[in-house]
Amino acid sequence: MIDNALAVPKDNAPALERPRAFNAIVYGGLAVGVLDGLAAATLSSLRGSGPIRVFQYVASGLIGRASFQGGWETFLLGVLLHFLIAFIWTAIYYGASLRLPALIRRPAICGPIYGVVVYFAMQIIVVPLSAIRKPPFSFASPLLGIIVHIFCIGLPIAIFARRSARSN
Which pTM does this prediction carry? Predict the structure, then answer.
């Protein structure tokens, strides 16, 4: 005899289907690209710089310091790279959610955790492998970065993955 209690989630929430790739990745990636880009531009403006420099900084990961003399071309390259990175992190979460359904069932918990994972992966792996020159250390910068990654990256990715999974 099969125990049907195993098929029902413990919290009595309705069962969810697999998330739909297009909705989770495209809409989630667009949301993350916009939210994270706005956060970066806002924080940069508060420090006396502007959004053009933010995205030239992103482009500097690919082409180095020359990006800051590139004008609109390197700004647009930075925007393109920024959204590409957003789509990649969103696709990784989507792929993981196929194996770990808790990522879909618990977006308010898993999303912020994923945001912190993304922050540290960017700082420990991605940025050091790029041509970006790291700015001097400050205590406020990592704290702000983690907060932005929780609310502008991890949480939206998890929410869009959850929304893309239909209830049975």
Answer: 0.87
